[in-house]
Amino acid sequence: MDATEIGLWGVPLAILGGAIRVSTPFIFVSLGEAITERSGRINLGLEGTLVFGAMTAYAVAVMTNSPWLGLLAAAAAGLCFGLFHGWICKFPKVNDIAIGIALMLFGSGLAFFFGKPFIKPKAPNLPAIPFGAWSDIPQVQAALDVNVLFLIGAALSLVLWWAFRNTRAGLIVRVVGDSSDAARAMGLNPNTVRLLATGVGGALAGIGGAYLSLYYPGSWTERISSGQGLMAVALVIFARWNPLGCFAAALLFGGAGALGPALQSVGVTQGYYLFYAAPYILTLIIMIATSSPTRSLAGAPGELSITK
Amino acid sequence: MTDRFMLNRRQLLKTSAAGAALGLASASFPISRAFAAAATVGFIYVGPKDDYGYNQAHAEGAASLKGIEGISVVEEENVPETVDVQKTMESMINLDGASLIFPTSFGYFDPHMLAMCAKFPDVQFRHCGGMWNKDKHPMNAGSYFGYIGMGQYLNGVVAGHTSKSKKLGFVAAKPIPQVLLNINSFLLGARSVDPTITCQVIFTGEWSLAVKEAEATNALVDQGADVITCHVDSPKVVVETAAGRGAFVCGYHANQSPLAPEKYLTGAEWNWAKVYKMFVDDLVAGAPLPNFTRGGLADGFVKMSPLGPAVGEAARKQFDATLAEMMKGGFSVIKGPLKSNKGAVVATEGQAFVETAIELESMDYLVEGVVGSTA
């Protein structure tokens, strides 16, 4: 087989590569949102946090020439956005969804405003680990160039899944999310827990943004996110608030998103708009297949304003 | 407490009367201004104006007007191709007193710009890329465009010489005539070097989708394409991704060579400064503005990026010769015998469409050798 001609093998390879490349922002944002929602709040503003994180990471990386400092700055900026959301929402009669939408617009607008001078310069990228080095097919090598953030995201979803079940901190977040009254009876302050949970969620979303601007596609433009933050928030419900589910759903979205370009590249060119809808059709099918008329959403935190 | 925010009938009537008066006053404002020495020109962009691409090319053109005495420029970026653009045009007319507006994105034309033309008959509108037709469209509307397909043909010439795999890649946004002409020109340029070359096209479906463009570029390189070009609003992502994978790139819209100095071959660029200056000179002189403006390399509407370091001697020679041929005028990219990739005859033996041929602006096919589909 000619090394440059891989033909139809390109499709599964592109789905695999796409799942690894495209999914990372989804993983971080949905894990962040999972933590926040498990504590009983919804932060819809993560799209804004993602865009602002992307801008901050890129700007700091340009100025300091270090992508890692950029990543840290993005996490810090995300933390601030999350804490801000959590702080406002502790006041009575404040609607967390409305604040989230406001912060989404605010975050994007602020990122566009500060990001203008950083569209032209080039920032150093985050490193990737060449897991494909065993293969001498360049396509396989390219697909298996895995960024460290993807691995961190995978590990984090495992840790969170374990921690929600087996640690005191996980129990605290869950009890606050399921019943404020029970939490107060245990001597916990729900507002403090939610503030911290929203802050951590924001920091993770900021890291997701850093991946976008510092690795894939690897540049800062105002259209960098195209709604990925919002989709990741929806993924959390799709994943039933389970961190492992979030990881799987993110992979599914990444892989399905790569399907359209991959099919066109091997000559399946009819109806590409339909293939681009693949992630959404898949979501619908799974949602319908797993829904039940006899029980409410399994795993939904009781304090969420959408389930109350 | 809610009473304070409730309007009674009298207040409501008063407020709306004041509003109507304001509306009348501002509507009459541009009429008195239209052909005065001082004029305001409005530019509307669909994306950010420093995107290394389509919008940047227009914004550079707009910026070149700022030194002209008596002309003030108002701009708005990131305006979607929806009713939003109508609001932007209205506010440019009513609040800024714009007498000439350039809505630069393809989707602004019909119905948005046409609606505004009917509403503000004294304001001039010139749209980039649209097909103005004097039987169908009002006289205060118009369109301008450049024959950038010629530039893509030159890109193809260089790509044809550079490619080793004889497979080229094209990341395209939407299958509209201008995009199809660019894809066809790119391939035909390459086939003028070697008639066995093919070009794989991937449509992303949107003008600007960073992640999907990166995925499309990766998919093309995976399939063995070794020279990539594109027609999306911001080629930055395509250029960087392709160069990162080791493929060569041809630019589009603006000069992207700073993004990939080693891998950048050449590029087809807009030179809007020249076009906008032409319109504004007419406006200042009080002359009627042309309704249908087109121009190519010879008219200075389009230019090529300087050839990059990877371009070989044979490629350079054919590039220069073809460019010289084009500068004489009358060069045709689409000439018979030529079939579409579905087998239909698009040009018979001896039939040739020069760059000015109006048929090219309603192109709906991909030529033989392009792997892809328009729907």
Automatic annotation (TrEMBL), chain A:
<protein>
    <submittedName>
        <fullName>Simple sugar transport system permease protein</fullName>
    </submittedName>
</protein>
<feature type="transmembrane region" description="Helical">
    <location>
        <begin position="68"/>
        <end position="88"/>
    </location>
</feature>
<feature type="transmembrane region" description="Helical">
    <location>
        <begin position="232"/>
        <end position="259"/>
    </location>
</feature>
<dbReference type="InterPro" id="IPR001851">
    <property type="entry name" value="ABC_transp_permease"/>
</dbReference>
<keyword id="KW-0762">Sugar transport</keyword>
<dbReference type="GO" id="GO:0005886">
    <property type="term" value="C:plasma membrane"/>
</dbReference>
<feature type="transmembrane region" description="Helical">
    <location>
        <begin position="193"/>
        <end position="212"/>
    </location>
</feature>
<feature type="transmembrane region" description="Helical">
    <location>
        <begin position="271"/>
        <end position="289"/>
    </location>
</feature>
<dbReference type="GO" id="GO:0022857">
    <property type="term" value="F:transmembrane transporter activity"/>
</dbReference>
<keyword id="KW-0472">Membrane</keyword>
<feature type="transmembrane region" description="Helical">
    <location>
        <begin position="6"/>
        <end position="32"/>
    </location>
</feature>
<keyword id="KW-1133">Transmembrane helix</keyword>
<feature type="transmembrane region" description="Helical">
    <location>
        <begin position="44"/>
        <end position="62"/>
    </location>
</feature>
<keyword id="KW-1003">Cell membrane</keyword>
<keyword id="KW-0812">Transmembrane</keyword>
<dbReference type="Pfam" id="PF02653">
    <property type="entry name" value="BPD_transp_2"/>
</dbReference>
<feature type="transmembrane region" description="Helical">
    <location>
        <begin position="139"/>
        <end position="164"/>
    </location>
</feature>
<keyword id="KW-0813">Transport</keyword>
<feature type="transmembrane region" description="Helical">
    <location>
        <begin position="97"/>
        <end position="119"/>
    </location>
</feature>
Automatic annotation (TrEMBL), chain B:
<keyword id="KW-0813">Transport</keyword>
<dbReference type="InterPro" id="IPR052910">
    <property type="entry name" value="ABC-Purine-Binding"/>
</dbReference>
<keyword id="KW-0732">Signal</keyword>
<feature type="signal peptide">
    <location>
        <begin position="1"/>
        <end position="36"/>
    </location>
</feature>
<feature type="domain" description="ABC transporter substrate-binding protein PnrA-like">
    <location>
        <begin position="40"/>
        <end position="307"/>
    </location>
</feature>
<dbReference type="InterPro" id="IPR003760">
    <property type="entry name" value="PnrA-like"/>
</dbReference>
<dbReference type="GO" id="GO:0005886">
    <property type="term" value="C:plasma membrane"/>
</dbReference>
<keyword id="KW-0762">Sugar transport</keyword>
<dbReference type="InterPro" id="IPR006311">
    <property type="entry name" value="TAT_signal"/>
</dbReference>
<protein>
    <submittedName>
        <fullName>Simple sugar transport system substrate-binding protein</fullName>
    </submittedName>
</protein>
<dbReference type="Pfam" id="PF02608">
    <property type="entry name" value="Bmp"/>
</dbReference>
